Amino acid sequence: MNFLLNYGLFLIKFITIIMVISTVILVFISGNLKKKNLGKLQITNLSEDYDQIKKDLQLAKIPLQEKKTWLKNDKKEKKKKLKTEKLLMKKGEVKSTKPTLYVIDFKGSIDAKEVDSLRREVSAILSVNQANDEILIRLESCGGVVNGYGLAASQIKRMRDRGLHITVAVDKVAASGGYMMACVANHIVAAPFSIVGSIGVIAQIPNFNRLLKNNNIDVEMHTAGKYKRTLTLLGENTEEGREKFKEELNQTHLLFKNFVHKMRPNVNIDSISTGEYWYGDNALQLGLIDELGTSDDFIIKYMNKFNIISISYIKKRGKIFDYLADSTNKILYSYLLDLWINFKKKS
Fold it and tell me: Domain residue spans in the chain?
């Protein structure tokens, strides 16, 4: 028993030292790279990409002896089209252009660090958008920190407040904070087996106080303000602190519920805010989404109506530490997503 206790204490000390060292290193690195870690907007014309794919497939289906003729005719058509456009410009006749469908990809992590890129993408769109332009957000997230996802939802609301019609497409998962973002949209499209909902709040914390007491280790914590700290990792938790912690969780949940109900007033908010999640088919029946489908189907459906442009803010990678941190975060996110889905299935 003493061995286990000593080993546990050693483990706590070891983890604490590693965390302190890691924090110092990360602060030092981020301070050095802060000015260098600039990014840029990457613009991709998806309409042109899809047209090129379509032409490549058409060409692949044509017999070899007919390919030369097909390419020749295609070249003639391009020249003819360009010539017509030039003549119209000379006459002062401007050909009416199609509105733009801006496509944003948001794959959120637990700490919602992607909000910074989203903010820049939204600001870029709002600086150039015109009448009848629309937004498609391909969203994937199982949620995370409340303040981070609250800010992400606010970024989407900036576009809605400016009168832009927003569609959110959920191909895999938009749960908890992810759904907080999705519900801001005018229209939500979700794949039949995508995961939607989980309108609830969760918080948990381990407590080592009894272990420390058994080894005659005291922990002192001083606060100014009765509820500055309700539950602690090392100190002794009180029933009053637990009740206050639960009260704060309930307040956060109430804010979440009210926000969803404001964005989607037709849903029965009490029946969908239990923390449960639903697959696309059931989510449609409950009013959590508006349509079953995938983001690819949506884009192909509106190709003739819109000029489709993907916009993403790409951060420049710093040194090897940035690459390792980013890779570790992606692996951890995938692992936690699988763990969350499996836990939900069992609970």
Answer: 1-35, 40-71+100-217+256-316
Give the residue numbers annotated as catalytic, written as ranges.
176, 228
Query: What are the distances in angstroms from CA 121 to CA 42, 156, 160, 313, 314?
Result: 10, 10, 14, 6, 10
For the stretch 165-203, pLDDT in tens is 999 999 999 999 999 999 999 999 999 999 999 888 877
| pLDDT at residue 30 in the model | 54
Closest CA to 195 of 119, 143, 132, 256: 143
Distinct helix (H) and strand (E) counts, the chain: 12, 9
Question: pTM here?
Answer: 0.72
Q: What is the dihedral of CA 230, 235, 236, 237, to 10 degrees?
A: 20
Q: Tell me the sheet residues that pair with 165.
A: 134
Q: How many angstroms separate the CA atoms of 12 and 342, rounded?
A: 29
Give the strand pairing for 39-45 and 307-315.
Answer: antiparallel
Q: Does domain 40-71+100-217+256-316 have CATH number 2.60.120.560?
A: no
